[in-house]
Structure formats: structure tokens, C-alpha cells
Specification:
The structure holds 2 protein chains of 2 kinds.
Chain A: E1 3-10, H1 16-22, H2 26-38, E2 42-49, E3 53-60, H3 63-78, H4 82-85, E4 90-93, H5 95-105, H6 117-131, H7 137-156, H8 166-178, E5 186-190, H9 193-204, E6 210-213, H10 217-227, E7 230-232, H11 237-240, E8 246-250, H12 260-269, E9 275-279, E10 296-300, H13 301-339, H14 342-366, H15 373-404, H16 407-417
Parallel strand pairs in A: 5-6, 5-8, 6-7, 8-9, 9-10
Antiparallel strand pairs in A: 1-3, 1-4, 2-3
Chain B: H1 2-25, H2 28-56, H3 64-85, H4 92-108, H5 123-157, H6 163-167, H7 171-204, H8 212-234, H9 238-262
Helix pairs in contact in B: 1-2, 1-4, 2-3, 3-4, 3-5, 5-7, 5-9, 7-8, 7-9, 8-9
The chains are: A alpha/beta, B mainly alpha.
């Protein structure tokens, strides 16, 4: 009995030391797929590896042997004893394997629920497997359904709608204030990973000139060239307030770098254009009193954390809707998988023919009212005989092909030829 | 006639309901249908007004019933045009119920028999009435946008975000479109004033007659003029501009309705109960 088996480990089951030992690079994957399908127990295989997970998806006639072989494969190719990772592995079969890959693809199983990268990574893995021809009828369909489910979850739920990183949440807020960030100028005071990330997000939104301020002018020059911006001196901040719209601050200064009075002065000459302050520093750089000035908005690190927490909560709520979509898809996939057996396919095929024959006979007989009952029965006999004769060879072929091993390919083709799945 | 108006009211009411649903559920299809229904209702509305105009042989702006119908028509028309220019899906939540309310009020308002007045056929008068109604409709939308602006700004300033934060557009769009409404409204109101002066000169031989409606309109006009001046000269914008758009509309409503109920004058005839 052929079935789908999934074996893997992820950030929840394995510590990073184990994950990094088992991770495959892109080139490793092609070689790995070839090695994996050398095992007699494995018929089809797809392998993918990200920093958070390694997953092997296979079809096999012998579940236990395939699991053993897969472990052996991991141990041999990664040169690490099975005992080192055996406890971290999860093994799913049948529906559970299908559900797992659907959930992974839809980013319901990710460390950060709703993050979009995972789908691209699965797509690449699938392309690799397709190029190596280690993926066949069943896994092809499984992966196509995975992409389909992922797309549905993304469009029908708001799982990926809101920012879950501090820097991106800040940019989303900026967009709620300014709308388009195109040509909006920004000032970066100090340095720091989050602040620089925020600037990069801004640049991706085609923001205008980035003004970089630093305690040491040399450092400012260096960073400015990195962002294609302009370095300015600490004393020039006040003049620069005329031009910039977004101020990102992340210095180690114990006092406020920008005070309420400075901004109060600047507002008038700015003709009240809005100013948005992103204060990532602790202790804070931006006088919180500025938030009370008209058209000025100050978000400090705690405010941004609050936004992110809310957004994560929203995503988790949306994930529940995503699970429903996955459940539905698992059932549909199971139906298709079951149908990939000779008997149900033949029955459905037969049924389709009978329905067509019956309908056409009825139509013909209606237009020939002068026929006697005897004549009518003769015509009906003839159509039944036709169906039987037509069905004879395909039936024999499909039954025989079961012996030769690539039964499912032929069944799949037959179902497609006669459009049985519709 | 009556049937057309009833269809119009129904369209507007259902559209309002759909827009409210859109506010809660944020489904793209909802706002589309809200918009289509509003546009559909607008067609019936226009036909109804033209039919009345043909029947009585002049612009139907003789009593409160007709004026409210015209006002609702202008609100919907200006909203539909604005919707083409600005991506402001949410504004329907303001425009559709406002138009519905005006229409329902119009249906309830008594309809005195229309006295045929020769003076009503002047080109200047028709232009006067239409431009004033369009201007007032634009101010109504500016008020709605002002309300949205304040809600959204509160959500951002207090850092609580909440219900409206996700549902309302960004501050810049609200502010810019509110300003556009003010500019359109002010231009139309000014045009309405000029044509009104010309008409008054032709009919009564004087430009201005200290009629209460004229006085209050003058006050409203000055208020909006001050608002626009403030914006152009010293950049009044954001919350301040939003609050003033709401206050301006309150004055406008008083000029439109209050003056007729509380004070007397020659404009009163047109909106008398």
C-alpha cells in the first residue's frame, strides 16, 4: 500500500546545534535527492532545508523501511550518528503528513506565523526535485496543492497583514501618517541594528534623502555612504529639522537629543507638515512631550513593542482560520489519493460512460417516436455493448499496469484523459 | 415620481447598510456593492429631479422637501466624483447615510403646492441654486473627512490604535482630500454668491438685502475663507483643519436649515415647513 511519509525536524523539536548539522545547502539537495531515491523503499522524494527546519517528503510502499532508510540517509550524508538527532525527529504518514506540509507551506508552523519566505523555499525545493525527477505524480500534486493552500490562506485570512518586527512596525506607522513614503526625507541619529533596518525599509519605499548624524562625523560619513545619504554634524540637527519628515533615533545619550522647544520652533517654519519620531534608544532620545505638539508623533521602543504584540496576536487569530482551510484541503487531497486505485477509477470511468450513453440514447429515442418497443430495446442494447467494448482494453491495461509498478502514473493519466476528477 | 424617490431612498439605505458592514468586515466586495447601489440610486434620483423640473417648469427648489432632495443629490453626486479621484472607500460610510437621512427627511417634510413664480426661471437663479448645493455637498464631505481625520489621529497619537486605526486611510490622504473638498466647496459657494448677486440685481435691483440667510451665508463664507487663508498662508492643517471643517459644516447646516426655522427672510419661502 503506497503512502506519503514525512520525516523532519524543526525549531520546536530540535535545538540549533542539531539543525545546523542536518541542514542542506542548495547543491547538497540535488545530490541528496539522488542518494535518497537510491533506496528501494523510497519511490518519490522532495527534500527541503531552511534555517528552522529540515523536511523529507517521500512516497513509499513500506513505511517502516522508508523511515529507517531516511534516517540512515540523513546520518550518512550529514555524517552524524542517528542517535544524535533521532529524538528530534517527527514522522508523519498519510493525512498527517499532508496536513504538515500544508501547514508549513501556509506558514502556520513557522516560528513567526505568517512569514512569507517559507513558501518560496518550498517552491525552490520542489523545482530541484522536479529537475532531478525525484518527484512524481503524487508529490507533484501534493506540492501544487501546498502552494494553492498557502495562497488561499494568505488571501483569505489576514495572517501576513501586519508587521511583526519593531523596525517594520515603525514603517507601517509612518505609512499611516504620510501615506506614500516616496521622497519623504529621514534623519538617522546614532546607529543600531533596528534603526538601520528601519532606514532600509524606508529606502525600499523609495524614501528621499537620508540624513545621517553621529557623534563622530567620520562614522556618520561612513554610514551615509552606505545609505547613499548625507552626513550632517550634531550641531546641524536643528537646521535639518526643516527638511526631514521621519526621525529615527538610536543613540547612547543619557539626555534627550531632541527637545520639545526645538520642535516647537521648527513646526512653524515647516508650515505644520507632520513629523514622525521613531525613538529606539533607551534611555529615550526624543522628548516625549513632543507627541503633544500638533502634527508630531513620537513612538518609543515600548510603543512599537506594543504594536508588534498586537499584530502577533492578530496573526494568531487569523491562523485559526488558516487551519480550517488546511483541514478542508487535507480531506480533498485524501479523496484524490484514494481514487488513485484501480477499482475506484474503473468504477468512476464506467459510471461516466454509462451516464453519457444513457443520456444520448434517451435523446435519440425521443426524436424517433415511431420506433417500436422492440426497436428501442435493440438500440439500448447496442449502446451498452459499445460502452463495454470501448471499456475493455483500458480496463485490462489499468489492471495489468498495477503489476508493473507505475500504476499510479497511468491511473492519473486515465483520470485526466477522461476528466474524472471534475 | 414618488416611486422613483422611494427607489432612490431604498438604494441609499441599503448602500448605507453595506458600507457599515464594510466598516466592520473590510471585505472588498462590500464596498464595491455599496458604491454601485449608491450610483444606481443616484441615477433614479437624477431622473426624479429632472421629471419634477419638467413638470413644474423650473428647478425644483421651492420647498423644504425639494431642497432636501437636491441637497442629498448633490452630496451623492459630489461623493461619486470624489471617489473617482481619491481612493477613499471609507467615505461612503459618511456620504451614504447622510444622503439617506436627507432623503428620508425630504419624504417626511410637507410639500406645499408649488406656486409658479416667473422669477424662478432665470438662468442666474438656476446656477445660483445648483452651485450652492454642490458647494454645500463638498463641505459636507469635508466635515466627514475631518471626523475621520480626528479619529485616526487619536488612534495614532494615543498609541491605542484600536477599531479605526486599521479601517481608516492614512492621515495624509484624509488631510489632502479634506482640503480638496474645501477648495471645491469654497469655489462653488463663491460662484453661487456671485450668481446670486447678479440675480438679486436683476430682480430686486440691489445686490444685498440683509436677508438673514444672506447674512448667515456671508458668515459661513468668511469662515471658510479664513480656513483656506490659514492653510495657504501659515499651513493650518491636520487636526486644526479637521476641527474647523466640522465647525464650518455646523454653521452651514444652521444657514441651510436653522435660519429658515428661526428667522424670517425672502429665502425662507423656499424652505418653509
Amino acid at each position: 500500500m503506497l503512502e506519503i511519509v514525512l520525516l523532519g525536524l524543526n525549531h520546536k523539536t530540535a535545538p540549533v546545534e542539531v539543525r545546523e548539522c542536518l541542514a542542506f545547502s542548495r547543491d547538497d539537495i540535488s545530490a541528496g535527492l539522488r542518494a535518497l531515491t537510491q533506496y528501494r523503499s523510497v519511490s518519490e522524494a522532495i527534500l527541503f532545508s531552511t534555517c528552522n527546519r529540515v523536511e523529507l517528503i517521500m512516497t513509499t510502499e513500506d513505511f517502516d523501511l522508508a523511515v529507517e532508510d531516511a534516517k540512515k540517509f540523513l546520518s550518512e550524508t550529514r555524517r552524524i550518528p542517528i542517535s544524535d538527532f533521532n529524538d528530534c525527529l517527527y514522522v508523519y504518514r498519510g493525512d498527517e503528513a499532508v496536513r504538515h506540509i500544508f501547514r508549513v507551506g501556509a506558514s502556520l508552523d513557522s516560528m513567526m506565523v505568517g512569514e512569507p519566505q517559507i513558501l518560496g523555499q518550498i517552491k525552490t525545493a520542489f523545482q530541484t526535485a522536479a529537475a532531478q525527477k525525484t518527484s512524481g505524480v503524487i508529490l507533484n500534486r501534493l506540492l501544487h496543492k501546498t502552494f494553492f493552500v498557502a495562497k488561499r490562506v494568505r488571501t483569505e485570512t489576514a495572517i501576513g497583514d501586519h508587521a511583526v518586527s519593531i523596525s517594520y512596525a515603525a514603517i507601517e506607522l509612518a505609512r499611516k501618517i504620510f501615506g506614500d513614503l516616496k521622497e519623504k526625507q529621514a534623519m538617522l541619529i546614532g546607529a543600531g541594528e533596528m534603526a538601520e533596518l528601519a532606514v532600509e525599509h524606508l529606502m525600499r519605499h523609495q524614501a528621499g534623502c537620508i540624513h545621517v548624524v553621529n557623534r563622530t562625523f567620520e562614522r556618520a560619513l561612513e554610514m551615509a555612504s552606505h545609505f547613499n545619504g548625507k552626513a550632517i554634524r550634531f550641531e546641524e540637527i536643528e537646521d535639518c529639522l526643516q527638511q526631514v519628515d521621519i526621525i529615527i533615533s538610536s543613540t547612547g545619550s543619557p539626555n534627550y537629543v531632541i527637545t520639545r522647544d526645538q520642535i516647537k520652533k521648527a513646526i512653524r517654519s515647516r508650515r505644520q507638515r507632520p513629523l514622525f519620531f521613531i525613538d529606539i534608544a533607551v534611555p529615550r532620545d526624543i522628548d516625549p512631550g513632543i507627541n503633544r505638539l500638533p502634527n508630531c508623533y513620537v513612538y518609543d521602543i515600548d510603543d512599537l513593542k506594543g504594536v508588534v504584540e498586537d499584530n502577533i496576536e492578530d496573526r494568531q487569530k487569523e491562523a485559526v482560520k488558516g487551519e480550517t482551510i488546511v483541514d478542508e484541503a487535507v480531506i480533498r487531497f485524501r479523496d484524490w489519493f484514494k481514487s488513485l486505485d484501480v477499482v475506484p477509477t474503473l468504477l468512476q470511468l464506467r459510471n461516466k460512460m454509462d451516464v453519457i450513453a444513457a443520456a444520448e440514447t434517451r435523446k435519440t429515442l425521443q426524436s424517433l417516436p415511431h420506433l417500436s418497443e422492440e426497436d428501442q430495446r435493440a438500440i439500448q442494447r447496442m449502446t451498452r455493448a459499445l460502452v463495454n467494448k470501448i471499456m475493455h482494453d483500458p480496463t485490462l491495461f489499468l489492471k495489468r499496469s498495477g503489476v508493473r509498478g507505475n500504476k499510479r502514473t497511468y491511473l492519473d493519466i486515465a483520470r485526466k484523459l477522461f476528466n474524472i476528477d471534475e | 415620481m414618488e416611486l422613483l424617490l422611494i427607489i432612490t431612498v431604498l438604494c441609499y439605505l441599503i448602500s448605507s447598510g453595506i458600507y457599515v458592514a464594510f466598516l466592520f468586515f473590510q471585505k472588498e466586495a462590500l464596498h464595491k456593492w455599496g458604491f454601485y447601489l449608491l450610483a444606481g440610486g443616484f441615477i433614479f434620483h437624477t431622473v426624479a429631479i429632472i421629471a419634477t423640473a419638467v413638470r413644474i417648469g423650473s428647478l425644483p427648489a421651492h420647498n423644504l422637501h425639494q431642497n432636501l432632495i437636491l441637497a442629498a443629490w448633490a452630496v451623492v453626486g459630489v461623493f461619486l466624483l470624489f471617489r473617482l479621484r481619491y481612493n477613499l472607500k471609507i467615505l461612503g460610510i459618511f456620504a451614504a447615510p447622510l444622503a439617506s437621512a436627507a432623503m428620508i427627511a425630504a419624504m417626511i417634510a410637507p410639500r406645499e403646492p408649488v406656486q409658479m413664480q416667473q422669477i424662478f426661471n432665470s438662468f442666474w437663479l438656476v446656477l445660483h441654486v445648483i452651485s450652492i448645493f454642490i458647494g454645500e455637498a463638498a463641505f459636507a464631505l469635508a466635515c466627514g473627512l475631518g471626523i475621520f481625520y480626528i479619529l485616526q489621529e487619536n488612534a495614532i497619537k494615543t498609541k491605542r490604535r484600536g477599531f479605526f486605526f486599521k479601517r481608516l486611510p492614512n492621515l495624509e490622504l484624509l488631510d489632502a482630500s479634506g482640503y480638496a473638498c474645501l477648495v471645491v466647496g469654497f469655489s462653488m459657494l463663491t460662484l453661487g454668491f456671485i450668481t446670486g448677486f447678479v440675480y438679486a440685481q436683476l430682480v430686486w435691483g440691489r445686490l444685498w438685502s440683509w436677508d438673514p440667510k444672506e447674512v448667515w451665508s456671508g458668515i459661513t463664507w468668511l469662515l471658510y475663507a479664513a480656513m483656506l487663508h490659514g492653510r495657504l498662508a501659515i499651513g493650518w492643517r491636520g487636526r486644526k483643519a479637521a476641527v474647523m471643517a466640522i465647525i464650518g459644516f455646523a454653521f452651514l447646516l444652521f444657514t441651510f436649515l436653522g435660519v429658515n426655522f428661526l428667522l424670517q427672510g425672502h429665502h425662507g419661502d423656499f424652505t418653509r415647513w
